[in-house]
Design a protein that fits this description.
two-stranded antiparallel ribbon; globular; mainly alpha
Length: about 500
């Protein structure tokens, strides 16, 4: 579990290195993150069902092997397309192995008290993996560049495969019925179509016939999925569970938490590297306080939830996370203020860590044991959708600022059209035609370059500001609504949940 969680954030700090090395545009960087998250989110439900039926340990081992193969392929990639394809393979592997981490806990720990403690450890490790991703990633990039991250994944996967094969017993629930392949296919069409439309729509135009058709297909896929899941005997996602406030509230909050986390990890890390010139080691130091805050609060929140229920931790955690995200924008305004940024990220980490435990524990507790794989997969799918939405929607807005917005400002500065193209290409891909960097070309293009660079970085910062405001507001609002929705649900020390 920590391996697949870690990979959702560890790559964020390597994006600038990938951009410079492979000359990847912002849209391609979105796919480096989004391709993994898409496969991860869209396939967890079917793999959760497959694990329940044919063996949870078997599904984990197959998934880990795919994850290792994808990681090795990514480390050897020589183009953005190769890297994106490898990331998709990694996402498939993560989707196969991740649901079993929760459902196996449900099978191994049948005594309520020990199960509650096991879920607390799971939540703490989830927060740990999520938080230390940027720290480990920064160190690895500093040591060996972006490929070092993927070689790290290969080595870690081999270790986890061996340990899993030795210590984890097999468990199945073969009597739960046939697999809902139709639901799996429709879910993939809906999620994949929406992601493709958002990312490619910014470049092609949202009125482009292809983009419009993709959105229509995604909407129809979602509608048919909803109808199908309400009528098949063994649905991929039992829609009746969505009527339970604890379950639906936890999914909403899981989406919002990851949406906000990636607004921090993806966009802030990219800004610090491209605009401020931070090294991998310095990025690691910036995110370290946030990581420690997430770890400590996630360890403490389990007992708090057991005593008072989930409503207050959800509300307080969401408020802290939102304020931290909004404060990060203050720390990045003008010249970056490292102390303000560090304090803001620490507050955000306190909030994120506080929400991880209730989101995880309540979703698993309200679903019967035989559907634990579906419950785990549903929660993780909501997380992945939050990542996808953050990277695609906010990333597309940021990319728009770097193209149309920057182009308009360059025109006002009197920059010739040919040079505008060079500047925009340089900002998006980390270099100008011919492979040289922006900094190296400032002497070539004369004194106007200082104004051009200022305009480019200003466009980047405007996009970042709006992205952080949206993310901070979303988690605060969704946290309040989720706390209200689950106010009748109280997680007891035995790990089960009562509904008012």
């Amino acid at each position: 579990m920590s391996l697949t969680f870690l990979d959702t954030t560890i790559v964020a700090v390597a994006l600038a290195s990938v951009q410079t090395s492979l000359h990847a545009g912002v849209a391609q960087l979105q796919w480096v993150i989004g391709g993994y998250a898409l496969a991860f989110g869209a396939l967890m439900l079917p793999f959760g069902a497959l694990g329940d039926r044919f063996g949870r340990r078997r599904a984990m081992l197959v998934g880990l092997a795919l994850f290792a193969v994808g990681s090795a392929t990514a480390a050897l990639a020589h183009s953005p397309a190769q890297l994106i394809a490898a990331r998709v393979v990694m996402g498939v592997g993560a989707a196969a192995s991740e649901p079993g981490t929760l459902s196996i806990i449900r099978q191994l720990y049948t005594e309520p008290g020990s199960r509650a403690r096991a879920l607390g450890v799971w939540s703490a490790v989830a927060a740990l993996a999520l938080a230390v991703g940027p720290v480990i990633g920064g160190v690895l990039v500093g040591i060996g560049g972006w490929p070092a991250i993927f070689w790290f994944n290969v080595a870690a996967s081999v270790v986890v495969i061996v340990v899993t094969a030795i210590v984890i017993p097999e468990s199945t629930d073969p009597g739960v019925g046939r697999i809902d392949w139709g639901g799996a296919a429709l879910g993939l069409i809906a999620i994949g179509g929406a992601l493709f439309g958002v990312i490619q729509g910014e470049a092609r135009g949202y009125g482009n016939p292809l983009i419009v058709a993709v959105f229509v297909v995604a909407a129809v896929g979602l509608a048919v999925f909803s109808v199908l899941e309400a009528h098949v005997p063994n649905p991929m996602l039992d829609l009746h569970y969505l009527r339970r406030p604890g379950f639906s509230g936890s999914l909403v909050l899981a989406f919002s938490v990851y949406f906000s986390i990636f607004a921090i990890f993806f966009f802030t890390a990219l800004y610090l590297q491209i605009v401020e010139g931070y090294s991998g080691y310095r990025i690691a130091s910036v995110f370290l306080p946030m990581a420690l805050a997430m770890i400590l609060t996630s360890l403490a929140t389990g007992r708090w939830v057991a005593r008072i229920g989930v409503g207050m931790p959800i509300a307080l955690g969401s408020l802290l996370a939102g304020l931290g995200v909004l404060g990060a924008d203050v720390g990045l305004s003008g010249s970056t203020h490292p102390l303000v940024l560090a304090l803001s990220l620490t507050v955000a980490g306190l909030g994120f860590g506080t929400t991880v435990v209730p989101v995880t524990s309540i979703a698993l507790a309200v679903v019967p044991q035989q559907h634990s794989g579906m419950a785990a997969a549903s929660t993780n799918t909501a997380r992945a959708l939050g990542v996808i939405a953050s990277v695609s929607v906010l990333g597309s807005y940021l990319n728009a600022q770097l193209t149309s917005g920057l182009g308009t400002k360059l025109a006002r500065l009197g920059v010739p059209p040919v040079f505008r193209h060079v500047v925009i290409s340089a900002v998006e891909t980390g270099g100008v035609p011919g492979g040289s960097s922006i900094a190296a070309d400032t002497k070539t293009f004369g004194p106007l370059v200082a104004k051009v660079v200022t305009a480019a970085y200003g466009a980047f910062h405007r996009g970042l500001t709006i992205s952080l405001i949206i993310a901070g507001a979303l988690i605060i609002v969704s946290g309040v609504l989720s706390a209200v929705a689950v106010r009748g649900a109280r997680t007891r020390p035995d790990g089960e949940t009562s509904q008012a």
